Amino acid sequence: MGAPTLIMPPAKTSKKARRTQSPAQPRQKDYLAERTYKRLREKIYTGGYRPGEHLKEEVLVEEFGASRSVIRQALTYLTAEGLLVDRPKIGKFVAEFTEELIAKLVPIRIALEQLAVKEAITNLKDDDIRELRAISENLQKPQESLADQDALDVSLHRKIWSLTGNDELEKLLIRVVGPFHIVSNGTLASPYYRRNAAAISVQQVLLEREKHAAGHQPIVDALCKRDAEGAAKAMAAHIAANYEAPDEDFSKSVGGFLKKYLHPR
Fold first, then answer.
1. Contact 163, 170 (CB under 8 A)
2. What single DSSP character describes residue 144?
3. Residue 24 forms beta bridges with which residues?
4. H-helix or E-strand containing 91?
5. CA angle, 190 as apex, 187 and 195 as ends, to 5°?
6. Please, where in the chain does CATH 1.20.120.530 lie?
7. What pLDDT, in 10s, does the model give residues 123-175?
8. How far apart are CA 169 and CA 120, in angstroms?
9. What contacts 77, CB < 8 A, 6 or more positions away?
10. Nearest 5°: phi and psi at 233?
């Protein structure tokens, strides 16, 4: 019988050495940067930062209570998404999107959103159906504020994207859809966008409040029936409807919207 094998206890390391060796710090920084990035993106989407606005690092450090390195990393993410533009020696600015660019993105968005609904159906469960129906029903409530309705709109689309289980598709959708959010919310806060661009936000609100056939309900109905082709057609109609209002109809609709919701008596 051979000599017994000695099992040596692990060598002790100092606290300083453990801090140096531990990957916790990089992970913590990445987590903070990701969280800050999402908060910044949400504020851009909802018009908290307007198109063309300069996002100064020192101001963001104070606003978010994060380090400059975390803020810088979050801004890098947003720049990669196309939501910010970098002006050398000046800094980061919220991107400004022209109507022409949005028009080019429309067919791309339709194609990606159609692919998303088709892939989502394959992973759809009963709990998902209930969640989608609840969001859709809330979108049609007239008492919902514009901000709440916008948040519901975003959450419904993102729920569909998450159901695909396709991270790369979701990344592409975030990149393509981001400009729509900036334009739709910037329209009500900035004179930068002209009348036609306003349709992207105001007309959509009208569609939902009026329970229009091109709202979210047909998409959800088709999804819940697991009708892939029907959901794809409904999604295309939903996105394209924002561009189909005749000038005179648009003027009347937007005028009524502004009077009712932005300047209530």
1. no
2. -
3. none
4. strand 91-94
5. 45
6. 99-262
7. 999 999 999 999 998 888 877 666 677 778 889 999 999 999 999 999 999 88
8. 11
9. 33, 34, 37
10. -65, -40
If we measure between CA atoms, which residue out of 104, 82, 107 comes closest to residue 93? Answer: 82
Q: What angle do CA 209, 145, 159 make, to 5 degrees?
A: 75
Q: In this predicted model, what pLDDT tens digit does every residue of 248-257 receive, in sequence order?
A: 555 555 555 5
In terms of C-beta density within 10 A (0-12 exposed, 13-18 middle, 19 or more buried), how is residue 143 classed?
A: exposed
SS3 at position 213: coil
Tokens for 25?
Answer: 């710090």
Model pTM?
Answer: 0.69
CATH number of 99-262: 1.20.120.530
- Residue from 199, 203, 238 nearest 218 by CA: 238
Other CB atoms within a 10 A radius of the CB of residue 34 amount to: 14
CATH number for domain 25-94, candidates 1.20.1250.20, 1.10.10.10, 1.10.510.10, 3.90.1150.10? 1.10.10.10
What are the backbone dihedrals phi and psi of residue 229, each rounded to the nearest 5 degrees, phi first?
A: -70, -40
Show the tokens assigned to 114: 């159609």
Phi/psi zone of residue 3: left (φ > 0), alpha (ψ -120 to 50 degrees), beta?
Answer: beta
Closest of 140, 103, 96 to residue 243, by C-alpha = 103
What totals of helices (H) and strands (E) does the chain contain, helices first? Answer: 13, 3
Tokens of 221: 């109905």
